[in-house]
Design brief:
single chain; 354 residues; alpha+beta; four-stranded mixed sheet; three-stranded antiparallel sheet; 9 helices; 13 strands; 38% helix; Zinc-ribbon domain-containing protein; Zinc-ribbon_6_bact; UCP012641
Length: 354
């Protein structure tokens, strides 16, 4: 995620802000430009972008619930922005804490959508294309009903809204013995399954995928059951980014895809801040010297991206430890995983829309 600036007063603003804390101008995100703009009221709930008077916008309909700050053109056929138009089912807002949970969920989902738009990947709602589209169900467990499972099925991503509760999510992380568990991580993983269907299945990339990740034709249910019963292979950390990735080729892809998005988004933030890492130690650590100058989304060669990521993640982990927190990125990227990440980068780079 890049950092944004109010073009009225030059104040640094956050992606989720709805008004500038310095000048007070309302803010809205324009998905075509991928920019957060100050707005000027134009009457009848419409706005123009500051210093741009031709196009009128409205806020997404979900702005009224405090969960979205994206803009919709005045003449749009839908009252929802590109991110919210992906929703199929939202939480029951009559339930306690539902709106607060939904806000946290949408913050994470909007960041996901930003990344997908930044990469130029095909992104369409099932409302517009039932066969190839993407949609989200945000569901709660109901008494007497089966537990809601977070997952993906043919373009439908289901999320149990309990994941928006920090305490419950941490309980699940410990129970699953996971080093990392976040809403954004869930979204990045599940959308990886969606893009396997869109970009890999029946494509020119399928054979190379199978060479790197394994045979997707292996029975998925049996593979997961074996993983839960027997655990991962003893040497899983030499070949996979996580133990769960070792369960099936699809999960290896989705886990690695999620980490690809972790890396790209974090490095974009680093480049926006002009981050530099130059450890004040012996020259033997020269491989940790890096100046993050270029937006990773503009780099075709993944070897340059991963060479930047390793010192940045090492610095982030060290800073987190100084605050008494867990490592921000508690994973080891082996050469085998780098090869998989490079493949994902190639597929994404070559699949960009013009």
């Amino acid at each position: 995620m890049e950092i944004f600036k109010c073009t009225h007063c030059s104040q640094i603003i956050y992606f989720e802000n709805t008004s500038c804390v310095q000048c007070g101008y309302p803010l809205g995100f324009e998905a075509k430009d991928l920019k957060l703009y100050p707005l000027v009221f134009a009457g009848d709930k419409t706005y123009t972008i500051y210093n741009q008077t031709k196009q009128k916008y409205r806020y997404c309909l979900n702005y009224q619930y405090g969960v979205c700050n994206w803009l919709v053109k005045e003449d749009s056929e839908t009252p929802y922005c590109q991110a919210c138009n992906l929703n199929s089912t939202i939480p029951n807002l009559n339930q306690p804490e539902a709106k607060a949970h939904w806000r946290v969920i949408e913050n994470a989902k909007h960041r996901l959508v930003y990344s997908l738009l930044k990469m130029g990947l095909p992104l369409i709602s099932k409302k517009n294309d039932e066969e190839k589209g993407l949609t989200f169900d945000f569901l709660a467990d109901l008494k007497g009903k089966p537990r809601v499972l977070t997952g993906h099925d043919n373009g439908l991503i289901t999320l149990n809204i309990i994941e928006a509760d920090d305490v419950e999510r941490e309980k699940s992380r410990k129970a699953m013995m996971e080093p990392y568990r976040t809403l954004l991580g869930h979204f990045r993983h599940e959308v990886g399954h969606y893009y396997w269907d869109r970009l890999i299945d029946n494509s020119v990339y399928l054979q190379e995928f199978r060479q790197l990740f394994g045979d997707d034709r292996e029975d998925y249910g049996e593979a997961l059951q074996k993983h839960y019963n027997q655990g991962p292979p003893a040497d899983w950390n030499e070949h996979f980014i996580s133990s769960y990735a070792s369960s099936h080729a699809w999960e290896d892809w989705a886990e690695t895809w999620a980490h690809y998005l972790h890396i790209m988004d974090t490095l974009q933030t680093s480049s926006s801040f002009g981050l530099s890492v130059h450890p004040q130690i012996a020259k033997s650590a020269d491989h940790l010297d890096v100046d993050v100058k270029q937006d990773p989304y503009e780099i075709a060669d993944f070897t340059k991206i991963i060479a930047t990521w390793l010192p940045v993640s090492f610095a982030m982990n060290s800073i987190n430890r100084s605050m008494g927190n867990r490592d921000l990125y508690p994973f080891i990227i082996t050469p085998v995983v780098v090869e998989k990440l490079s493949f994902i980068h190639k597929v994404c780079y070559q699949s960009r829309r013009p």
